[in-house]
Amino acid sequence: MPINYRISADVVDIQTDTPKKEDRFFIDTNVWFWMTYTQASNSALHYQITNYPSYVNSILDTGGSIYQNGLSFAELAHLIEKTELDIFKCNKKKPGAKEIRSKEFRHSHPGEREKVTDEIEAAWIQVKSLAEPLDITVNESIVDTALERIKTQKVDGYDLFILELMTNHNILQIITDDGDFATIPGIKVFTSNRSVLNAARKQRKILTRDTQAQPTINQK
């Protein structure tokens, strides 16, 4: 069933946009996964492992700024471990064999565990080398603000903290394949997600740059 996105962000198609030197972007975890993990193609669509890395590299070539946060590490590590488990199960699959679950994979296959941790370390080293860090303290105030936001905005718990991070650092542009961000007012979503782009066109929320003022995130 198609996702019924109600677009509130300004949406930019990264295949038709040219990054600018003054651009400042937060990079979502899914993009880091496709850019830094050697086996990303096992679980990604072709456009994800081509369009996003190409656009991010264009930003760096232009002199724009990209940012990351430690929150992304946990999600990136989870995605890499999950993909490595899927690859392992595919290689070991036999008729009637017992399903291998994440706990067993983590604790009972030390050789594979070492491979997982090597992949995570290599990926995060790349993230740190490419992007500037942004700090956020997940304290009671931040959690209370996130709780208020989740009542009106359709994002998951992890993304709530990313939005608070962006707000606190006045980073109003995010590169992501996650359509949830396109429903947030006051930000610019740079994406190659066809479903999001089609919805944005129908709702007249596609942004042609150079003609729009810088937005401010709506915290409610």
Low-confidence stretches: 211-220
- Indicate the percent of residues in helices: 40-55%
Question: What order do the strands of the largest sheet run in, or round the barrel if closed?
Answer: 1-6-5-2-3-4
* Overall average pLDDT: 91
The major β-sheet equals: 6 strands, parallel
| C-alpha Rg (nearest Å) | 18 Å
SSE ordering: EEHHEHHHEHHEEH
Distance between the termini: 29 Å
> How many E strands?
6
User: Helical stretch count?
Assistant: 8
The SS-based structural class is: alpha/beta
Sheet-strand content, in percent, reads 5-15%
Sum up the overall morphology in one term. globular
Report on the structure:
By secondary structure, the chain is an alpha/beta fold. 49% of the residues lie in helices and 10% in strands. The chain contains 8 helices and 6 strands, in the order E-E-H-H-E-H-H-H-E-H-H-E-E-H. A 6-stranded parallel beta sheet has the order 1-6-5-2-3-4, sandwiched between helices. Helix 1 (29-36) packs across helix 3, helix 1 (29-36) crosses helix 5 (110-130) and helix 6 crosses helix 7. The two termini are 29 Å apart.
Q: Nutshell version of this structure?
A:
The protein is an alpha/beta fold. The chain contains eight helices and six strands. The longest helix has 22 residues, at 71-92.
Topology:
Layout: E1 10-13, E2 24-27, H1 29-36, H2 46-62, E3 65-68, H3 71-92, H4 102-108, H5 110-130, E4 132-133, H6 140-150, H7 157-169, E5 173-175, E6 188-191, H8 194-202
Parallel strand pairs: 1-6, 2-3, 2-5, 3-4, 5-6
Helix pairs in contact: 1-3, 1-5, 3-5, 6-7
